[in-house]
Design brief:
- The chain is an alpha/beta fold.
- The protein has one domain (2-155): Glycogen Phosphorylase B (Rossmann fold, 3-Layer(aba) Sandwich), CATH 3.40.50.
- It is 38% helix and 13% strand.
- It has helices at residues 13-23, 52-61, 71-80, 100-108, 120-128, 145-155; strands at 2-5, 30-33, 45-47, 64-67, 84-86, 114-116.
- Strands 3-2-1-4-5-6 form a 6-stranded parallel beta sheet, sandwiched between helices.
- Helix 3 (71-80) links the parallel strand 4 and strand 5.
- Helix 1 runs parallel beside helix 5 (120-128).
- The longest helix is centred in the N-terminal third of the chain and has 11 residues, at 13-23.
- It is globular.
Length: 160
Amino acid sequence: MIFVTVGTQLSFDRMIQAVDEWAATSDEEVVAQIGPSGLKPLHLKYQQFLTPDEFTAYMDQARAIIAHAGMGSILTALQLQKPIVILPRQAALNEHRNDHQLATAGRFRETRGIHVAMDETELLAVLQNLNTLSASDGVGPYASAALITTIRDFIEGRSV
């Protein structure tokens, strides 16, 4: 099963439409959380919103995740060692208030297990190769000791 999530604040119809188009030609079961959208996908099971328990269950069951470039979805996929395909929302397309998701996507472009698509064409190309996508090696639930020390030094005015 492939799980798709757009987060909870805004709809992301551009991504859902592209995934729905791909799902029409795929044998994969696709389940999507589509947010506050009027869109009615034809080729995937969907709900606007999920409870935290439902979200966790779908993330656990999925063999791959497709998501906006939200940190919650990315970190959860990394922790679960699931491949994640991200498509960042764009402020110019009225999908978000600013372009922080473009920055997030750029930062994670070379990270194992995170597969970045910058537009629908790239998304469809990545999805055509879904069976070959690598997963992450996992991340721990806490920051590394080195990061904590660096932050502590910065806060306390020591050179970083």
